[in-house]
Amino acid sequence: MSVPCGKFYCRETRRAIERQNRIERARRRNEEVSNVRNIVLLAKENDPRILAANKAARDAKEAKRQARLVAVQKRREMEEEQRKREAEAAALARAASEERRRSEAERIRKERDLNRSEAKRERRQLRSILVEQLNYFVDDKIDTSEVGSHQVKILADMDLLCQRLSNAQLHELNEYLEQAGTPDKAHCIFSAKVESVKHELQANNLQSQTKLRPENSPSTDSQTNASKWTTEMIQVLVKAVNILPAGTPKRWEAIAAYVNQHISGVSVSGKDVLKQAKLLKEEDSNLRKTANTKAFDSFTNSVKETDAVKNVTITTQLEGLFYNKINLFEFTSHFL
């Protein structure tokens, strides 16, 4: 209960009354707030409209959560299905590639076997024509002592043709030999074919040699140049090595250019210069060792035993004896 504060009260009384009124107001305010809170809670618990709204909110939230879960599940299922399809497609592609590779290998094997069998048949037919039908082209013009060498030559030419000609060319040659009619004509056809194959081999050899010659020519030139180092060239090389010290970019190429520039008619490379410099270094070290050895030997032979040397030796002996006596004195005084 609040107490009225009039002017007839003293100051202390008024202050006490104000404190009491402030406390009472706070109590009543808290009580009012508590009553309002209780009313609100009671309404939330019992009002059907609020209950329906809360239920609708919960249902909507649950529906969103379920929809999100369903979407995640569908996405996972789609990803899993996509991975399965990709794996199946990759497996099918691998199987198809393996099948193609196997079929290609089988086709190549069959073709190789067929070509091999055809080659055997054509070679056998060529040998039959040359040996059985034409008898190595042996006639009365050939001496009896040369029949063996002639047969060996025909067999060697036949092997050359079998190695160099294809199956179609062998088949064509066999047909020409069978249709020749006479052994002389067949011999001419056979000899012409052998000569054409030999000319082709010679042309291939010449072509391969011309291709290899430019690659081998620089090395031979460098070897010949490296083997012809004159005294003037060595002097210029030493000067260039001193002018261009270690650490110079492309040092040996620069030294080679210096040598080529200062000596006319000479062409050396960096490798040649490096090789010659190493040889000069080895020779210089060997000469230096030999000179040092000879100088030391001559010095030992020229030195004679003088009085000064003898005195030095005696002095050394006396000093050793003196130090031995001192050590003996210290050793005995230690026990005294």
TrEMBL record:
Signal peptide from the UniProt entry: none
GO cellular component annotations, sorted alphabetically?
A: cytosol
Q: Which InterPro entries match?
A: Homeodomain-like_sf, RAC_head, RAC_head_sf, SANT/Myb, ZUO1-like_ZHD, Zuotin/DnaJC2
Region annotation (Disordered) maps to 76-109, 203-226
Residue ranges annotated as coiled coil are none
Segments forming domain Zuotin-like zuotin homology: 10-50
Name any one GO molecular function. Answer: Hsp70 protein binding
Q: Which Gene3D superfamilies match?
A: Homeodomain-like (1.10.10.60), Ribosome-associated complex head domain (1.10.8.840)
Top-level lineage group = Eukaryota
Pfam family membership, one: ZUO1-like_ZHD
Q: Which residues form the Myb-like domain?
A: 228-306
Q: Which PANTHER family match?
A: DNAJ HOMOLOG SUBFAMILY C MEMBER 2
- Listed name of the protein: RAC_head domain-containing protein
Organism of derivation:
Schistosoma curassoni
